[in-house]
Amino acid sequence: FPVTIASQEWGMGLHITRVVMxxxxxxxxxxxxxxxxxxxxxxxxxxxxxxxxSAVVKELPLELVAVECFCALTLQSWGLQVPNPMVVVDDNAxxxxxxxxxxxxLAQHLGVRGDMDADERRSIIDRxxxxxxxxxxxxxxxxxxxxxxxxxxxxxxxxxxxxxxxVLIDHDKAMGFGLGVDNKLANIVID
Length: 191
What we know:
two-stranded antiparallel ribbon; alpha+beta; five-stranded mixed beta barrel; 5 helices; 8 strands; single chain
């Protein structure tokens, strides 16, 4: 599958970065929910090679930083597309980060809103399923990978999709840190 990731020259691996902006210049994205509960924000970070990139940074407990790093590296090693993961140093605290990509989430691509009625939700699921069918080998591998890392929270919000490329994000509910036992993506595809 074709994928355009901004810094493939970094190669696989975990990178250490440092926020290079003052707190007032950081752009909040949202407050986390569930186990994460931390703030998610955009920031410019300096890579260990001195290159500055835009990153999505998640303030998480250290065990969830480790889970995010482990899962991102594992999925990359299995050939699945994940933004370059990084440990971000900000105010002497360690956070999880990944290189920001221009792709919207699959939910955004499909126009998901919080106030949709049952018929609109069914239509979105049907459209998502038709996209998944086109990506059948990838989705089959992803369902198996999510089972292997115990990710029970793969949903339309944490698959970035620009109409041609699918990139995976948000793994802090894997490795036993999620609340459910079902593979959400499998349920969407099977439904």
